[in-house]
Amino acid sequence: MFNTGCRCEKPTKFLRMEADFSSDPIWCDICSSNLDLPTLPLSFELKNELMKWILEYGKWLDLNTDKLVNRAFELQREHNEWGLRLFLKVESELGNQYCIRFSPSTSVETYIQRDLF
Ligand SMILES: [Zn+2]
Question: Could you give the count of Cα atoms lying within 13 Å of 84 in the half-sphere of its Cβ?
Answer without folding.
Answer: 8
